[in-house]
Amino acid sequence: MEKRTMGCEARTVTRIQAESKKTLEDFVIQECPIALVYNGISHVVMMATPIDLVEFAKGFSLSEGIIPNLHALYAIDVQHSELGIVIEMKIASSAFVKLKLQRRQLVGRSGCGLCGIESLQQFEQLLLQVTTPFNPNWLNQIEPAVKNLNFHQPLTGLTGAAHAAAWVEQGEIKAIFEDVGRHNALDKLLGYIAIQNIQVAEGFVLMTSRASYELIRKCAQLNIAMLATISAPSTLAIDLAKQAGLTLASFCREKRFALYTQIQQER
């Protein structure tokens, strides 16, 4: 028998240690296909944890540049089936025309690739410049935020398999979202930020994952000035952070972190 809680299911597992063998129930994170459909046209299928779906759909639409803001998203409908989940969205005609010009069909995985773009030139064009001023005090807020991070990750506590994306202000975690995929967790957080009309100049994003290029691009798309990650960055993430004007801190632990870019903005 399967038992379900938010984002995970209880499955039977046999644990073996030395001479002992024990059968019990263990929580396992959920992962399922989620199709994002715009004005009746299927755009992408993402493999994600099926929680916080409205935030996910809105965050993805914004971070991928499909809509310029939430005013261009007129309606959203989440439909569940045995095969997976379909999220139907109605967007402004101007956004839909732009989307059709770069229409792609793809399957996103837990570690998403370039999401179907057709050229390196197109990849460069996707990166926006961050205009939100960097606040040096954010660097002092990394330690208290990291220290309390584990207390805000219920799905990780149950399964040990989720990435988390948190919004930090004054060293406190104000919002956090979890998913099997790091970019999905970030999209959920970005959707929440847009829905709540949070002022991005007031804080920064903290993630439990490595710093990959798509996290940089998504943060830049919403004009977020700093990304802090628990694990290492990639070379492309560092290069794109510099290009976008985004401060990147990685290897963030309770009493240390490494700055790979630090943008001193005077605006």
TrEMBL record:
Arranged from A to Z, the UniProt key words for this protein are: Cytoplasm, Molybdenum cofactor biosynthesis
Q: Coiled-coil region(s) at which residues? A: none
Tell me the InterPro entries matching this sequence.
Answer: Cytidine_deaminase-like, FdhD
Pfam families in the record, alphabetically?
FdhD-NarQ
Q: Where in or outside the cell is it found?
A: Cytoplasm
| Active site: residue positions | C112
Q: Where do the annotations place Mo-bis(molybdopterin guanine dinucleotide) binding?
A: F251, C252, R253, E254, K255, R256
Presence of the UniProt keyword Cytoplasm in the record = yes
Q: What is its main location?
A: cytoplasm
Give the superkingdom in one word. Answer: Bacteria
Job of this protein: Required for formate dehydrogenase (FDH) activity. Acts as a sulfur carrier protein that transfers sulfur from IscS to the molybdenum cofactor prior to its insertion into FDH.
| Family recorded in the similarity comment | Belongs to the FdhD family.
Q: Which NCBIfam families match?
A: fdhD_narQ
Q: What is this protein called?
A: Sulfur carrier protein FdhD
